[in-house]
Amino acid sequence: MSTHVRRAPAKKALPHPDLREVPVDLVLRALGEPLRLGIARSLARAGHPMNCSAFGLSVSKSTSTYHFKVLRESGVISQFEEGTSRYSELRETELEQRFPGLLTAILTAEEPATTEPPGPERAQPGARPAR
User: Fold this and answer.
1) What are phi and psi of 68, to 5 degrees?
2) Residue 122 confidence (pLDDT)
3) How far apart, in whole angstroms, are the C-alpha atoms of residue 77 and residue 117?
4) Residue ranges of E strands in the chain
5) Bridge-partner residues for 77, per DSSP?
6) Cβ-Cβ contacts under 8 Å for 63 (sequence gap 6 or more)
7) Which partner from 2, 4, 24, 86 sits 20 to 30 angstroms from 100, CA to CA?
8) Domain coordinates of the chain in residue numbers?
């Protein structure tokens, strides 16, 4: 009688950039999109890798894949596959070393208050005065 030992699935890291080669504007563009900023904030709160399906994003799978790819290619997150699952982890320590204080400032910044669009009585920036 043979005994079969079950092994945990191997982790396979997805490619991500060396942060020494990532310009700050790439990180800012990645985190400047609300959905991606929300993903980064969720990862920061969790403090551990999260399965990509755990975010409960209200977008299609292809759209969420795109957003995770942007975050990975900008150096904000690292990802690995374990079995059929893909996990994401915030590269907090590395980002702090490369851009001191940047990630903390972005993740803890308050959301801007929503305001009503300017009415006809208020001039819009760049608008010509009425004649």
Assistant:
1) -65, -40
2) 47
3) 35
4) 11-13, 50-51, 77-82, 85-90
5) 90
6) 57
7) 86
8) 11-108
Q: From CA 76, how far away is CA 16, in angstroms rounded?
A: 9
Residue 89 identity? E
Q: What is the pLDDT along the chain (131 residues), one digit of tens a residue?
A: 556 666 556 788 889 899 999 999 999 999 999 999 999 999 999 999 999 889 989 999 999 999 999 999 999 999 999 988 999 999 999 999 999 999 999 999 986 665 555 555 544 555 555 55
- Return the residue matching tokens 């819009």: 124
d(CA 121, CA 112) in angstroms, rounded, equals 23
Which architecture does CATH list for 11-108? Answer: Orthogonal Bundle (1.10)
Write down the pTM of the prediction: 0.76
User: Hunting for tokens 């929503």 — which residue is that?
Assistant: 114
Between β-strands 77-82 and 11-13, what pairing exists: parallel, antiparallel or unpaired?
antiparallel
